[in-house]
Specification:
7 helices, elongated, 4 strands, 7% strand, two-stranded antiparallel sheet, mainly alpha
């Protein structure tokens, strides 16, 4: 998981601040979800894992509302509401969920399930390859 996290972080926040990275304001889902990518793994501010951790802090719901309305968080605000430990916690929970969901799928490259009685090294490699491909669907 650490290697996967480092690889995703290198792609997502390389050169833009790692844990302190803040993306541009954007809207998705026909304007239903607006916000910014936050931190090392560039979780959208409306991502359920990020929202849960941020909203649990005093002032967190207001912070999320401001970000939704185009507020550019400072580094201090980001670390107050979404510190590095929470960013890592959100990443681990999100990846665990993606692994669980992916294991229930059929591998589009092989036509075979991602799980079996005794997973082979190739099966594990394909699962590890496939999980980040799902990233865009949940972050």
């Amino acid at each position: 998981m650490r290697s996967l996290g480092n690889a995703i972080a290198e792609i997502e926040s390389a050169g833009s601040g790692d844990y302190k990275a803040v993306g541009i304001h954007t809207c998705a889902d026909g304007g239903l979800n607006c916000g910014r990518a936050l931190g090392r793994y560039q979780f959208m501010s409306y991502n359920p894992y990020a929202v849960q951790l941020i909203a649990a802090k005093p002032g967190g719901k207001e912070f999320l509302s401001q970000v939704e309305q185009r507020h550019q968080p400072t580094e201090a605000e980001l670390f107050e509401f979404f510190p590095a430990s929470d960013q890592d916690r959100a990443f681990m929970a999100d990846m665990a969920n993606k692994i669980q969901l992916t294991q229930q799928q059929i591998d589009p490259a092989t036509g075979q399930p991602f799980t079996g009685d005794s997973p082979s090294e190739t099966l594990r490699e394909r699962l590890i390859e496939r999980v980040p491909q799902r990233k865009g669907s949940l972050f």
